[in-house]
Amino acid sequence: MAKFQFRLQTLLRLREADRQRRRGELAQAYRAEEILRQQRDFLAAEETELRKRIQVASGPGPVQVDQLLDTRRYAIVLQARAKALEEQQARLLREIERRRQVLVEADREVRVLEKLRDRLLAQYRAEEAKQELKQLDEVAQRCGGRAGP
Question: Does the domain made of 9-146 have the CATH classification 1.10.238?
Fold first, then answer.
């Protein structure tokens, strides 16, 4: 009997390659999320440091108005950056979810083809075993016919 050959093997390889590409895209989005998290952490540290400077500048003793104004302006800049990062994070989370769903679908398409291949292979093996049994039965009949009285 001829060797088993899955007719859709090329399609399966294409779907596997697509799934791998989708995994890479999702990993890239997760890396972008990590970078945003680092930027948010940096901004939070900057804001903490800025609050300390404001407390010191507005503490007892002579008030340095220019330094206090500069510090307040910088605080506003940091708040604007934090808001922009939040918006970017929200967009990124939507993109991550979209990419995750695309990967789930690509994985499902691969699994469907793999199941089909496995089912066809099982049928092929069953048919092959059936043919082999048939040949053994024929040989046994021939040998049994010759050993007569």
Answer: no
pTM, to two decimals = 0.75
Which among 124, 43, 148 has a CA at the least distance from the CA of 85? 43
pLDDT of residue 56: 79
Sign of the dihedral defined by the CA atoms of residues 93, 76, 61, 66, in that order: positive
Mean pLDDT of the chain: 91
Side-chain half-sphere CA neighbours of 112 within 13 A: 9
| DSSP output for 57-100 | HTSSS---HHHHHHHHHHHHHHHHHHHHHHHHHHHHHHHHHHHH
Render 97-142 in DSSP notation, one character per residue. Answer: HHHHHHHHHHHHHHHHHHHHHHHHHHHHHHHHHHHHHHHHHHHHHH
